[in-house]
Write a structure and sequence with these properties.
- The chain is of the alpha/beta class.
- Helices cover 53% and strands 9% of the residues.
- The protein contains 20 helices and 8 strands.
- The radius of gyration is 24 Å and the shape is globular.
- About 2% of the residues have low confidence.
């Protein structure tokens, strides 16, 4: 391991020091750095801007938009992105009709969104995909939108995924020889419910089969995305159940995302590696650190559940390195996509791949569209295979994604934020040093135990032991049904 650490430091310095052409206003890296500048300069301004962006799709009339623009955005425009400044300056001029302000604001929000979203439709995103291909980067394309509330919405989402995959396959002659899409099960099924895993897996596979069949027949790759923790086990079960079916038993272009920031991630990874070894057909694992950290804390707090994520960012980075090493050196037919914007994490993966003599076709790096462009270019210059996760969809569907990306970019511990602030090579390549016992926020239930009255935590039915306990309790109650029970009033 010491040799790998030494080599990772050498590679990290090379990645950090690679000379790149200076950015211009037309480069996404310029917008990325300036977006970070205005988000991190003032937390209060950041909160107000993100709240406005989050609210934006609900502002149904120009007059409503104008009123909210005045209420939410600050008077001091020195730290705001230029597109929003134009909208704010228009508010207090004679030209400030609601319709004019709405048009300028809409253009501003869309300009910011397009930093992170490749296009509204596959065809519109084609230009961005072609540009990345010219820069020697492949793509995995995702459709924005996570929640599906009806069967009709699920069927419509399936049709859009199939159209997307068909478009990528049809245009690959001049582009990516291995087109790939990423699929969220929650976007395909309204009843993707962790409390009913057997039924949910069966129903989700009905929607996934046509996509996997289309990918198999066209030589494309398909990746299943991982979302919030409550869906983790169900998503894994659905993926493995599908690939165990006879039709897909030899399909070798399927993949699944895996989150390193979860406390039990390494234990679950061993289970997945064991399954891949038994199946003995290649599976791609996209190793990510995780994008729902703030949400996981809020959900655990509101329900009174134990926190599923690591609190210490360095602990997540260290786990990510251990899991990268495990995946690159295991005997199972695992292909790994190392999803990171962190120079140290990328350098570590390259050092491990070099040490393990891992063939180039067994691994790649992945970055998010509009994020980490400098590292992406440096990895390409280094000779590493790179794929960009490119979301496609209408702005209304993309607002939640946009806010999550802005929050992720501007978080206090974000590597991209520190890089934008001028991180040195030594800082960028330093091995993670987890805090021995990081302070953990107390879930709401623990706070309430100090009071006379407390709410009982919601049953976490996404956990197998909780479901088993619930099933036993229901069985006991069923044995009591049909009895006459007299009321007790005043003790009599």
């Amino acid at each position: 391991m010491d040799t790998i650490h030494t080599r990772a430091a050498e590679i990290g310095h090379a990645l950090h020091g690679n000379h790149l052409p200076a950015d211009t206003l037309l480069d996404k890296s310029w917008w990325e750095r300036h977006a970070l500048a205005w988000l991190t300069a003032d937390p209060a301004v950041k909160t107000r801007i993100l709240r406005f962006i989050d609210l934006y799709p609900t502002l149904s009339s120009p007059a409503t938009l104008l009123r909210h623009l005045r209420e939410y955005l600050p008077d001091d425009t020195s730290r705001l992105p230029a597109p929003l400044v134009a909208a704010i300056r228009l508010v207090d001029t004679p030209l400030a009709t609601p319709r004019a302000v709405a048009a300028v604001t809409d253009a501003a929000i869309r300009r910011i969104a397009r930093t992170f979203i490749a296009g509204a439709t596959p065809a519109e995103a084609g230009g961005a995909i072609d540009r990345l291909l010219r820069e020697e980067c492949a793509c995995t394309v995702d459709l924005l939108g996570e929640a599906t509330l009806t069967d009709a919405e699920g069927e419509a989402a399936l049709a859009r995924y199939r159209e997307l995959l068909g478009y990528l396959v049809a245009t690959r002659a001049t582009g990516d020889p291995t087109p790939e899409i990423s699929v969220k099960p929650t976007s395909l099924l309204a009843t993707f419910d962790p409390a009913a895993p057997v039924r949910s897996s069966a129903d989700a596979r009905v929607r996934l089969r046509p996509l996997f069949r289309q990918a198999m027949e066209s030589g494309a790759r398909i990746n299943v995305d991982m979302e919030s923790f409550v869906y983790r086990d169900l998503t894994l079960a659905t993926f493995t159940d599908l690939l165990e079916e006879d039709e897909f038993a030899r399909f070798d272009s399927g993949g699944i995302a895996f989150q390193a920031y979860l406390e039990d991630a390494e234990e679950k990874l061993e289970e997945l590696i064991g399954w891949i070894a038994r199946r003995d057909v290649p599976v791609r694992i996209r190793l990510v650190k995780g994008a729902y950290w703030d949400q996981e804390l809020a959900v655990a707090d509101s329900h009174g559940w134990p926190l599923p994520v690591r609190i210490d960012k360095e602990a997540t980075d260290a786990a990510f390195e251990r899991m990268t090493h495990r995946l690159m050196t295991c005997d199972a037919p695992v292909n790994i996509a190392v999803a990171t914007h962190n120079v140290r994490s990328a350098a570590w993966a390259l050092a491990v791949a070099e040490s393990a003599r891992l063939p180039r076709e067994r691994y790649e790096f992945q970055t998010l569209y509009g994020m980490g462009d400098d590292l992406r270019r440096r990895l390409v210059a280094y000779g590493a295979p790179v794929r960009v996760y490119a979301p496609v969809g209408e702005l209304t569907c993309g607002i939640a994604y946009l806010v999550r990306r802005l929050l992720e970019n501007s978080a206090n511990e974000s590597f991209l934020r520190h890089a934008a602030e001028g991180m040195t090579a030594e800082e960028a390549t330093r091995p993670p040093s987890p805090v021995a016992s990081p302070p953990r926020p107390r879930p709401l239930a623990e706070v309430e135990r100090r009071r006379t009255f407390r709410n009982e935590p919601t049953a976490p039915l996404h956990r197998p032991d909780e479901r088993e306990a619930m099933e036993k309790a229901i069985a006991r109650v069923e044995n009591l049904l049909g009895r006459a029970v007299d009321p007790v009033i005043g003790g009599a």
